[in-house]
Amino acid sequence: MLTVQETAELLRTFDNVLILTHVRPDGDTVGCAAALCAGLRALGKTAYLLPNPGLTETTASYFLPYVAPEGFSADKIISTDIATPGLFPENAKVYEGKIDLAIDHHPSFEHFGKANIVRPEAAACGELIYDIVKELCPITAEIALPLYVAISTDTGGFIYSNVTANTHRVAAELMSTGIDYRAVNKLHFQTKSRVRMQLEAAMLSDAAFYDSNRTAILSVPISLMERFHATEQDAEDLSALAPQIQGVDCAVTMRELRPNVWKFSVRTGERVNATEVCRLLGGGGHARAAGATLECVSQAEAAEQMLSAIAQLVPDFKK
Questions:
Q1: Using an 8 Å Cβ cutoff, are 22 and 30 in contact?
Q2: Longest CA span, the chain
Q3: Cα angle at 246 between 280 and 148, to 5 degrees?
């Protein structure tokens, strides 16, 4: 496992770099990739991001300035905020087994790179990217903006339980570069489309509660997306809704990606280890935030498998 200094030294030897982000890209993977790309370019390196078909308008402005031109041939491949090759977008699967450097912060990280660095205690992968890029070059506003997006969005606006004093220190350093962090906060935490609000209302209306109302399951079937003509942008981070329900300490959001393919996002308190629950279903993540995907199951079957996994690990769980 590499240290930050060893990672920076390795990156100094790289050129013609292609950086990968994960499927259904969020602010952390996009912000990390963009900031790292900007840092490498500051060293005079040729670096680009692999286009991600799941990119939404919310994060596109940070991503698009660095997109690889058609036909770009990379000598080195880097992944950012990706715990497993199973999270590669379709156009990135050709690079499985060819990752020269994998940078991540998930406890479930699978060490699939030729070289790897992981910081499980980091609230966001952006914290780790900050330390790495700082070893390479000064942190400019161009680098700081996507990193602030990475850290702020992956911590829910600095409110999740894995936020540390270091998270705030890094954010303060990024803010001191003069970035418009107010606009970032407004966009990501204080703005919702009307369709998004309709989705949330429908999810809450159909929510199912178990375990003396401590466990909630909110579902987003394809039919619900179609009913409101919702886009991927409307559906970003829907998993943030269920944990806001008073009394809930195990919040499960089920999203149907394709017919009978259900993606779970699990957010928990101290009582339930989200990673261990999701690991039983083939997934992983953090102790308080994790995910898994089940295929060839109905909505009812998917929910039942999730409840069974929780019950298996939580002694006082009562359906």
A1: no
A2: 59
A3: 75
Q: What is the pLDDT of residue 318?
A: 86
Question: Residue 22 is encoded by which pair of tokens?
Answer: 């994960």
Amino acid at 75: D
Cα–Cα distance measured from residue 218 to residue 201, given in angstroms and rounded to the nearest whole number: 11
With a CB cutoff of 8 Å and minimum separation 6, the contacts of 284 are: 83, 84, 106, 107, 108, 275, 278, 290, 291, 292
pLDDT at 167: 98
Q: Which amino acid type is present at position 262? A: W
Phi, psi of 252 (to 5 degrees): -115, 125
CA dist 31 to 49, 148, 149, 159, Å?
Answer: 11, 8, 6, 19
Q: What is the 3-state secondary structure (H, E, C) of 86-149?
A: HHCCHHHHHHCCCCCEEEECCCCCCCCCCCEEECCCCCCHHHHHHHHHHHHCCCCHHHHHHHHH
Q: What percent of the chain has pLDDT over 70?
A: 100
Q: Rounded CA gap, 196 and 236, in Å?
A: 9
pLDDT, residue 319, reads 80
Instruction: Give CA–CA dist 160/85, Å, rounded.
Output: 26
The predicted-structure confidence for 108-128, as pLDDT tens digits, reads as follows: 999 999 999 999 999 999 999
pTM above 0.85, yes or no: yes
Rounded mean pLDDT, 60-74: 97
Pairing of strands 284-285, 215-220: unpaired
Contact 306, 298 (CB under 8 A): no
Alpha carbon distance 267, 78 (integer Å): 28
User: In whole angstroms, what separates CA 204 from the centre of its chain?
Assistant: 23
Give the Cβ contact number of residue 259 at 10 Å: 9
- Total residues belonging to the chain: 319
- Amino acid symbol at 41: R
Distance CA 70, CA 89 (A): 17
Tokens at 206, concatenated: 């159909």
Mean pLDDT of 294-301: 97
Tokens encoding 137: 């070059």
